[in-house]
Amino acid sequence: MKVYISADIEGITGINHWDETSKGKLGYVYFADQMTAEVNAACKGALNAGADEIIIKDAHESGRNIDISKLPEKVKIIRGWSGHPFSMVQELDRTFDAAIFIGYHSYAGSDGNPLSHTMHVTKIDSIKINDIYASEFLLHMYTAAYVGVPVVFVSGDKKLGEHIKDINNEIGFKGVIEGIGNSVLSIHPNIALRDITTGVETALKRDYSLCKINLPRKFEVKIKFSNHYDAYKASFYPNMVKLSEREVLFETDDYFEVMRMMLFVI
Q1: SS (H, E, C) 207-223
Q2: What is the distance of C-alpha 10 from the center of its chain?
Q3: Residue 90: pLDDT band by 50, 70, 90 thresholds?
Q4: What angle do CA 11, 265, 222 make, to 5 degrees?
Q5: For residue 110, what is the enclosing H or E element?
Q6: Which of 80, 114, 175, 241 could be disulfide-bonded to 158 (CB atoms 3.0-4.6 Å)?
């Protein structure tokens, strides 16, 4: 069994402030360690379920947060950013049996997490695909579906779990924090680690083909920027239409073109 793990930090247990997500800032080292621990917990669950190959994408900010020395020797890790449109699931392809997302978070504008955003913290006000608010989970679950790989388990904030269940109720989920205004209600990190291991193992031992989704036939992507000048610049991307001072529209029937557009516009 070949398993892909994509890991972010804004949905890691206990995290609450932007300083805790950035290298060199107060609190970052602790949460980078917790991110590593939660990825390790997912690896243990995958190995318990029979995985013989695990590829991890460090998918937060610099792409250099996870300490591989604290992970099982069977894993390989992708650090940094290649510039490929698949972004947070770089190198994911049809050879993988399943994908797991650790430390993911609610979409830009959501009240589910003080750190809610989609792809860019300050630049993006919101992204909608076919009138559904797009989280980083949705963008990369669609990418996984594009290459025929089901996302079988996700951890992150509680509201992200509600978003996921609306898409496919078969996908395993562990909520580790709940956003309350500019605060979070967090479970104990040790409980998170145990439940992630158990959740991943359970997800991979069941019929995870139930987690597969059918991609929409067409994609209508609306991006609302925080600043008007970013929308102006984006409007020059091929087939992009400017809807208002801060909003643009991109339409295609090929999801790869959605991710290619995101790479150059955001």
Answers
A1: CHHHHCCCCCCCEEEEE
A2: 10
A3: very high
A4: 75
A5: none
A6: 175
